[in-house]
Amino acid sequence: MASRKKFLKVIILGDSGVGKTSLMNQYVNKKFSVSYKATIGADFLTKDVVVDDRLVTLTLWDTAGQERFQSLGVAFYRGADCCVLVYDVNNAKSFDNLNSWRDEFLIQASPRDPDTFPFVVLGNKIDVDEAKRMVSGRRAQAYCLSKGQLPHFECSAKDGENVEVAFEAIARQALAQDESEIDYFDPTVNTGFPIESGGCSC
């Protein structure tokens, strides 16, 4: 076990209502709420995990999906080690917008090497009736392949299916991205932007 704990910053992006906050809460707190409350600005949760015998602290940033908050991106994206793109498998538009979220992140975060920066794609709400599904797994996999073989997981924030596995992969990607030096952005520092706790984007 490493003596020095690493801090890894993960940004979670996607349209409003795809379940970003719910995925975070399911992973960190093993809880799900059926109530919906849009995230204002950004919210974050932390969790200590062990990745390949390394103790790391994941700082998961849940950013608002509403367009009026996208301009807040620079402060929140700075120092990110991995970006998670979330869509609702029952909402084709949320899938179609993944490209916009990915491009916006690369512009705002300005990673040292945009071509190799790690993204992970999550398709949420697979617990909903299969007949209502609008985005097939094959279509999502084709998108991920076209973007450089991005890891892709289908999951359910409601019942927890595949959530743990997905975030283990996210932690691994984040650790690999910045193994030698962590540019850690302290989430407790006031950015001047609203930080809200307890939101649920179910």
Structure commentary:
By secondary structure, the chain is of the alpha/beta class. It has one domain (6-177): P-loop containing nucleotide triphosphate hydrolases (Rossmann fold, 3-Layer(aba) Sandwich). It contains six helices and six strands. The protein has helices spanning 20-29, 73-77, 92-96, 98-109, 137-146, 163-177, and strands at 6-13, 42-51, 54-63, 82-88, 119-124, 152-154. Strands 2-3-1-4-5-6 form a six-stranded mixed sheet, sandwiched between helices. α5 (137-146) links the parallel β5 (119-124) and β6. The chain is globular and about 50 Å long. The model is unreliable at 180-186 and 188-202 (pLDDT under 50).
Entry keywords:
202 residues; alpha/beta; Rossmann fold; six-stranded mixed β-sheet; disordered C terminus
Radius of gyration: 16 Å
**Uncertain spans:** 180-186, 188-202
**CATH architecture label:** 3-Layer(aba) Sandwich
Oligomeric state of shown chains: single chain
Tell me the number of helical segments per DSSP (H or I, 4 or more residues long): 6
The total beta strand count reads: 6
Walk across the major sheet and give the strand order.
Answer: 2-3-1-4-5-6
Total number of domains: 1
**Morphology:** globular
* Gap between N and C termini: 36 Å
CATH class identity: Alpha Beta
Q: CATH-wise, what's the superfamily? A: P-loop containing nucleotide triphosphate hydrolases
Structural class: alpha/beta
The secondary-structure element order is EHEEHEHHEHEH
Helix content: 25-40%
Q: What's the mean pLDDT score?
A: 82
**What amount of the residues lies in strands?**
15-25%
